[in-house]
Amino acid sequence: MDLTRTATRTLGAGAALGAGLAAYAAAEARAYTLREVEVPVLPSGHDALRVLHLSDIHMTPGQRAKQAWLRDLADLRPDLVIDTGDNLAHQRAVAPVVGALAGLLEVPGVFVLGSNDYFAPTLRNPLRYLLPDDGRRNTSSPHLPWRDLRRAFEDAGWLDLTNGYGTLDVGGTRIAFAGVDDPHLRYDDLSSVSGPADPHADVRLAVAHAPYLRVLDQFAADGYDAVVAGHTHGGQVCVPGIGALTTNCDLEPARVKGLHRHPADSAPGDPGSSWLHVSAGLGTSPYVRFRVACRPEATLVTLTPR
After folding, report:
1. Residue 56 to residues 7, 41, 53, 113, 114: CA-CA distances in angstroms?
2. CATH number of 31-305
């Protein structure tokens, strides 16, 4: 047997397989997908509301396909937009984000910011995400122009829910909101939004970038009908038959994306419980634009009567 020839063939097959997997993961990261879910939280007799949930756009100026896909979302004509942060990934990303969202900025909206709106991304070993959280955060890289992004959103009429409250009348339905700054950076000030949710509102929604359990627990206990979050990227790299390997927070992988209950074992109507929607988001680190079995997404969340 010619061992040299056999080893060469084996190495060639391995290289081809690796190249194929890399090509697939790169294509998956650009396969933008619209998800749709229904959440029964409205009082009887109210018309359904179409809410577009955006998260983790991680925009750079050169991502033209992503910008075009986002522009087309305005054709959905949602009643409300909820943006759960991490819009930026570049010092010059504000104009591309605002341009891509121009049609949606004409719609009522609310937003919070995430860690990647505040700090520029850095090149890091992606395997770190699979290790236990050591508490270290990227707060030493240059600041991104998050103030300009916030100003653009506010000038369009969107509500900033950073550690605060807000109320909107959307299609004849009064919605009370509460939100926190990014829990991943521990910028959340839960004491500033603690207490029972507005009892006079038709529906109560809470918004956060990262779905840490301490945040979900408080909002559910305070009577919010649903909590909306992002941050997890849906695991970003998922194993078929197993799912996400990590959530990059203390939420368990089984609820890394999509619609769930919180607490996980609760049922609609249980006191101190709520719906939870976690977006897998639209982007990745600009340094590692890979996804596996987890396409980038925006979600059209239809609120319906209970």
Report:
1. 43, 25, 10, 10, 8
2. 3.60.21
